[in-house]
Amino acid sequence: MQKTVLALALFGLGLGVAHADAVKIGHAGPLTGPIAHIGKDGENGARLAVEDANAAGVMIAGKKVTFELMGEDDQADPRMATTAAQRLADAEVVGVVGHVTSGASIPASRVYEQAGIPVITPSATNPKLTRQGYKVTFRVIANDLQQGAAMAQYAAESLKLKKVAIIDDRTAYGQGLADAFSDALKGYGVQVVGREFTNDKATDFMAILTKIKGQQPDAIFYGGMDAQAAPMLRQMRQLGYAGKFLGGDGVCTGEMLKLGGEALKEDTYCSQAGIPMEKMPKGADFKARFKKRFNTDVQLYAPYSYDAAMAMIEAMKVAGSTAPAKYLPALQSISYEGVTGQIAFDKFGDIKSGGTTLFQFKDGKWATLN
Q: Which positions make up the signal peptide (predicted)?
């Protein structure tokens, strides 16, 4: 009996040593709350990258390296984000994929800068994130300025809108996107007849929508996530509002298709930073492998999380080191062919070749427009 206990204890210690020797990469995003499906999607993308790297037997400085993903839940909350970031720093991760939202990414970025840990967001699009002068902050997706400009051009030139009302959720993401869209509309002579705001926990928008309906806009644009966009759209229909509904990438999700239900019609449009998966260089293969591994479809940002994790690993291989200070220069100059396209960063840490895609709801799904 004592031998069995001793053997089990040694086995447990062996597992502990293996765990301790692994090179830890962190992921931070909302794993609980209304957009937990987005956070889990991103975490799974990063996890698949780590598993692929381990299966390939990555060698760094002549030594085989095993990677491990450490996930933290920031609840898409700015205060929780700094706590999550500090936990990852204290755990001595060598890099972080995240955070998912701009509201979480911006405050957390200071923690990583102070710790000297590279962080690559797959989805935070507020331009302020990469304009803070930090050396360790990167983004593998287009920012709000590009996305807002694309939607504004389509709204003016293709949809021929003359008057638009704008609502945002007052998060760094939602307000930043709404501001970018509003500013871009001015260049096309489109009038913003109302600017309202809510929050990212709200479910009742009747008062706001009733006020907007009286202003008779041709469309309502919402800067925020699907958890609010879906009930907002349903309440628009209940009020008999006849205008179009526009949103950003927080609306362009598979979950929005489920939550929106019959309220979704062909007058619903959204923009998404990046390109459709079918247009990604390795999108079809990624989609199939993701489905097989996690038994669920890609929600939104998983391919970008995968590329963020892989870009770090590639930089470590180039630098011959997993130490953040040593592989950071290689990451700053990386040129890596990822799932989503070419991963290379400008002097601010923004992706050099980020694109934006527009979608329309049609035949039960998001159909690519441009």
A: 1-20
